[in-house]
Amino acid sequence: MTVAPTLPIPPERSEWTVDDLGDLPEDLPYELVNGRLIVPSPTALHQDLCVEILLALRVNCPPEYLVSIDLSMRIDRRNEPRPDVVAIRREHANRSPVPVEDALLAVEVISPTSTFRDLYDKAKVYAHAGVRTYWVVDPLHDKMTLTEYALSPSGEYEVVAHTEDLFVTERPWKVSVDLPALTARRAGLLARDGE
């Protein structure tokens, strides 16, 4: 008779650092934000929206860059977030976590359990790390919105754009995101057959 393997139980800690992450199972999708361990469990709807944002960014992506979803970025001892979408240098295509210095854009799609974290905690972490552009996509209302933040000379994010219509920007390159189309897509995915 063989003994069934036991599931590893992560140690309990009130404060985590990147050094502690080695104690976790390698296949566990985690984030570390301000010393707090987060194990996200996104919905299919959330992931679908992330893919749509990725595809919009990919259209004019210069060859030296790469757009990816759910990729760890090492920032400091207390922070290793996983932006929903990130634009990085292509040379890091086979690396995780990627160095935050090479991230041109981080995108977070708000979920019911991440609003404060995405709007405040991660914004401060990304700004402090020097990520030049940060987008927050909010699909939680009747009309989906996108807010674009750019790093100011003071090292804080400033709102550059906020819209529920067609979003067009030149940061990090020419990108357009059709928010009304994404809102309609979400409604269609949520609609029950025959309604």
Short recap of the structure:
With 195 residues, this protein is of the alpha+beta class. Helices cover 22% and strands 28% of the residues.
Low-confidence stretches: none
User: Radius of gyration, rounded?
Assistant: 18 Å
Mean of residue pLDDT values: 88
What is the percent of helical residues? 10-25%
Biggest sheet: strands side by side, in what order?
3-5-7-8-9-10
Distance between the termini: 55 Å
Q: Return the structural class.
A: alpha+beta
Q: What is the chain-wise order of helices and strands?
A: EEHEEEEEHEEEEEH
The number of distinct β-strands equals: 12
Shape: globular
Main β-sheet, in a few words?
A: 6 strands, mixed
- What's the number of helices? 3
β-sheet strand percentage:
25-35%
Question: What does this molecule look like?
Answer:
The protein has helices at 44-58, 115-129, 179-190, and strands at residues 31-33, 36-38, 65-69, 73-74, 85-89, 98-99, 103-109, 133-138, 145-151, 157-163, 166-169, 175-178. Strand 1 and strand 2 form a beta hairpin. The model has no long low-confidence stretch (mean pLDDT 88). It has 195 residues and is of the alpha+beta class. It is built from three helices and twelve strands, in the order E-E-H-E-E-E-E-E-H-E-E-E-E-E-H. Strands 3-5-7-8-9-10 form a six-stranded mixed sheet. A two-stranded antiparallel ribbon has the order 1-2.
